[in-house]
């Protein structure tokens, strides 16, 4: 089963700092790990939701800060690093060549720092605004926000040299992995609907908003750089979290 447990473990290795072991992984296992990206997000969301619930007696805002701080321990700021590099590259470069030079620079510039602070503040405040539904907002946002990178990998070419790309092991995914990732991401939304917490129309509106933003990002990446890089994928996940949290605030509040 190329889509089985070992591919899920490979996804955890790729996206987090959780020591799941299992090396070496085959090419098919790395490839199928992309289908499990939302599954990793689901697990992270459950862990963050548990921390949020334990910290909530301190207040909604402190609980939100603690939950997101905990997430950084799990992921090592993997997606946040991509967002910072993307903001620096697209904000500070005037040519395609300069974009790649900035992406290779390990330092965080003004655009990257501002992007990190802004998105973290927005996510924390939006999570606090969900009130007693913070656990649901974390599970849904962490899971579903890891679908846009999968779609971008499917539809757009990589423009980073394969030898320099951290994402080389998961490139060239096919429609089976894309479909599988979509089904995994739909699971928390399906549960929320069955539990009577959201309406079908609200789920469709949330998915539509995420699709539009992902499409806009894809066009931006194609126009500015000719395709995607690993940093661009991390940025798309971060933007996806914001879109989902904003939508959930409107739905759940």
Question: How is this fold's topology laid out?
Answer:
Elements: H1 5-15, H2 27-33, H3 37-55, H4 60-75, H5 78-92, H6 96-104, H7 110-129, H8 134-144, H9 148-155, H10 175-194, H11 200-225, H12 230-252
Helix pairs in contact: 1-2, 3-4, 3-8, 3-10, 4-7, 5-6, 5-7, 5-12, 7-12, 8-10, 8-12, 9-11, 9-12, 11-12
Q: How would you summarize this macromolecular structure in one to three sentences?
A:
The chain is mainly alpha-helical and 253 residues long.
What can you see in these coordinates?
73% of the residues lie in helices and 0% in strands. The protein has 253 residues and is mainly alpha-helical. It has one domain. The mean pLDDT is 94.
CA-based gyration radius:
17 Å
* Percent helix range: over 70%
Instruction: Give the total of domains.
Output: 1
Beta strand count:
0
Termini Cα gap: 42 Å
The backbone outline, from C-alpha atoms, is: globular
Poorly predicted sequence stretches spanning 5 or more consecutive residues: none
Major β-sheet annotation: none
Mean pLDDT: 94
Q: How many H/I helical runs?
A: 12
Beta-strand content bin: under 5%
What's the helix-strand series? HHHHHHHHHHHH
Helix and strand composition category: mainly alpha
